[in-house]
Amino acid sequence: xxxxxxxxxxxxxxxxxxxxxxxxxxxxxxxxxxxxxxxxxxxxxxxxxxxxxxxxxxxxxxxxxxxxx
Length: 69
What we know:
This protein is an all-alpha fold. The protein has helices spanning 4-16, 24-41, 46-63. It has three helices and no strands. Helix 1 (4-16) crosses helix 2 (24-41) and helix 1 (4-16) crosses helix 3. The longest helix has 18 residues, at 24-41. It starts with a helix and ends in a 6-residue tail after the last helix. The relative contact order is 0.23.
């Protein structure tokens, strides 16, 4: 089960790395790395963390492209 702390940790990692990635693929890749790292640190499902991170970073950077340069 995905606890709130894990989601917040993954989201925090995504926001911290949101300046990375020029293309959608790079944004998803960097977000996946941040999400997986956050999940590993919080002892949760790394695959789920990577999925949340990839989606979160891609959405953030597509919504706010000026903040991702």
